[in-house]
Design a protein that fits this description.
Blueprint (H helix, E strand, L loop, with lengths): L1 H38 L6 E8 L7 E6 L10 E6 L7 E4 L8 E6 L5 E8 L2 E8 L10 E6 L5 E5 L5 H9 L9 E5 L5 E6 L12 E7 L4 E9 L9 E10 L4 E7 L12 E6 L8 E5 L4 E5 L10 E5 L10 E2 L5 E6 L4 E6 L7 E7 L17 E4 L5 E5 L3 E3 L3 E3 L4 E7 L6 E3 L13 E2 L13 E9 L1
Antiparallel strand pairs: 1-2, 1-31, 2-3, 4-5, 5-6, 6-7, 8-9, 9-10, 10-11, 12-13, 13-14, 14-15, 16-17, 17-18, 18-19, 20-21, 21-22, 22-23, 24-25, 25-28, 26-27, 28-29, 28-30
């Protein structure tokens, strides 16, 4: 009896231990699953849009749009933050949200840098405005890059007057008004200007426009797009080179001429550089806005990096602000003049292939209804499944207005296939049409009339 009881107790104990083990395993699995779920990117809740007052009579502003699918205010402009100045020509903003919850935005006609606190949207505050001093009134900030030491650099194109234009056009000697970088500390205080002048560049135009940084290889790439940003400039002069910098000491290492392709003009006005995200990669993709092509270098850190033409978007397609998906699989490129956004498969960057496109010159609901289009700026959501596109380019004396239809669209993106389609549920709160209309009379800050949307960022 005692023996049987002991066997029974041992069996019961084994069952209890097994049950306990299974419970622990199950709880661990649930916990791990929860941790995985919590680290997976989730759709953003808001979209910040850097916006210019259309007639330049009222303040420019940052707009906050609800992009929470299913929200009763989905697509509504929930908040606007006027910046206390007008006619800045709001242009680019940060590539990604900073760790301190701020967003930096450029005014390319005023030369101002605006710093917003966007850490608690839709509530947003203007924290600081950097006013250019007389010695840098002709060095407008364009694109920002955050550095490992906490500083920020902004490309500064340096605008040319008519006399300098004539010198540049003659091809005699170096660029008379070379651009460079503006450096700020982490609080947005201006520190210095770093010239991009290169004695080995000959008569090449030096006007940094786009920038991409790769701290892992201590390199930055800037593009020399155009001169002609001065408020009195009547035309633009395009460049044909890119520059490689050593990031740690902000030194230009080399200025690389870009070779033309079969059309003879693919190299004109290199525009936006983008490094692959892979920290081991030295690969950078660079589009050309007037040349309408795509170039790639796979060895930026080499002593003599090469740069090859890999894709032709077609004459005068005018590629604009692109993004690369986090897995480095797709390159999303708006084409301003041909009114579409194309998705290129770049798993082999030297041989991109188009996999999908979306057109912006027709109503997404009614293909027979024409729209102005001109997609220019793209922002990719943190979850990699949505992108925002703004239909406005720029208005400068040298370019005139390149308007578009002044709408913001959301598109669904399939990261497995590269397919894109308009989110037709993203509708204007007043017109109820697809796309958020910036040609409106009233905003949360007042009845200031139509506006022009440009730089955008998704906010959590």
């Amino acid at each position: 009896m005692a023996l049987g009881g002991r066997k029974y107790n041992e069996a019961a104990a084994r069952d209890m231990r097994k049950t306990t083990f299974l419970i622990i395993v199950a709880l661990a699995a649930i916990a791990c699953s929860g941790r995985r779920a919590s680290t997976e990117p989730v759709p953003s809740r808001f979209l910040a849009v850097w916006t210019g007052d259309a007639d330049r009579h009222d303040d420019d502003f940052l707009a906050i749009i609800d992009v929470r699918s299913g929200s009763p205010t989905f697509g509504h402009v929930l908040n606007t933050v006027p910046v206390g100045s007008k006619a800045n020509e709001p242009h680019h903003i940060d590539f990604s949200l900073r760790a301190d919850g701020t967003l930096w935005a450029s005014g390319v006609l005023s030369g101002r840098t605006f710093i917003f606190d966007v850490s608690h949207p839709p509530g947003v505050k203007l924290l600081k405005v950097d006013e250019p001093t007389p010695d840098r009134v002709h060095t407008p900030p364009h694109a920002y890059a955050i550095l490992p030491d906490g500083h920020t650099v902004a490309t500064a194109m340096d605008m040319m007057d008519s006399q300098q234009h004539a010198v540049m056009a003659s091809g005699n000697g170096p660029d008379p008004a070379p651009g460079g970088l503006l450096e700020f500390d982490s609080g947005g205080n201006y520190l210095r200007r770093v010239s991009a002048a290169d004695p080995k560049a000959g008569s090449a135009l030096i006007s940094p426009y786009g920038i991409a940084v790769k701290p892992e290889i201590d390199r930055a790439v800037t593009t020399n797009a155009t001169h002609g940003w001065l408020p009195t400039s009547k035309s633009m002069i395009p460049g044909e080179t890119v520059q490689i910098w050593r990031l740690s000491d902000r030194k230009v290492l080399r200025t690389i001429p870009i070779a033309a392709g079969p059309r003879g003009k693919e190299n004109v006005a290199p525009y936006e550089p983008r490094f692959l995200h892979d920290p081991r990669s030295q690969t950078v993709l660079i589009n050309s806005v007037f040349g309408s092509a795509l170039y790639v270098s796979t060895n930026v850190a080499a002593d003599d990096p090469d740069l090859r033409l890999v894709y032709d978007f077609g004459a005068d397609a005018r590629p604009a602000y692109p993004v690369i998906t986090p897995d480095d699989r797709y390159y999303l490129q708006p084409l301003t003049k041909t009114n579409k956004l194309v998705v290129l498969d770049i798993h082999d960057p030297m041989h991109p292939k188009q996999v999908s496109e979306a057109r912006f010159d027709v109503n997404p609901e009614t293909s027979g209804e024409k729209r102005d289009g001109h997609p220019h700026f793209v922002a990719l959501d943190a979850d990699g499944r949505r992108l925002a596109v703004s239909d406005y380019v720029i208005d400068l004396p040298s370019t005139g207005p390149v308007e578009g239809d002044r709408r913001i669209y959301l598109l669904r993106f399939d990261p497995a296939t590269g397919a894109i389609e308009f989110d037709k549920s993203f509708r204007d709160e007043a017109t109820h049409g697809v796309g958020i209309e910036f040609n409106r009379d009233a905003w949360p800050h007042g009845k200031t009339g139509p506006a022009r949307p440009h730089g955008m960022m998704f906010l959590p």
